[in-house]
Amino acid sequence: MQDTEQSIPPTAKPPSPPAVPPPHTPPIPSRLHLDREKHLDITWADGTRSVYTLTYLRSHCPCAGCKKDREEQSTRKTRVNLLSADYGGATIKALKADLVGNYALRIEWSDNHSTGIYSFEYLNTIRAGAGG
Length: 132
Ligand SMILES: [Zn+2]
Description:
alpha+beta, NE0471 N-terminal domain-like, three-stranded antiparallel sheet, 25% strand, extended, binds zinc ion
C-alpha cells in the first residue's frame, strides 16, 4: 500500500469578525502618595490599597532596558538576585515623580534612571508581589 497522500494545506482561516473588546476600565488610584525615601502608597478607586517599597518599584521598572536586564538575569539563573538588592550599595530613592497624562507615573530614581513609566495598570499588575 502506497501512501501518496499529500499533506493538505491548512485552509485559510476566515477573517475573524472584528472583536468587540470587553469593557475595560483601567485601574485608577483615588489617592496616591509617594514617600520619596520609602514607598509609594496607592489607594485604588475600589478602596483597596497597595504599598510598594521603592526598591520593589525600581526592580520592576517597566522600561525596555530594565525589562531586558530582568530577562537576562532570569535566563542566567544566578542565585543572586541583584535587582532586588539595593542599588549601588545605597538604598534607592525617588528624586521626583510626575504624573503622565492620567494613566501613569514617571519616577526619577536616585541612580539617575528615569525612563520607566509606571502605568497604573502596570502598578495594579505588580501589586500582588508588593505585599500590600
Ligand atoms: Zn528602567
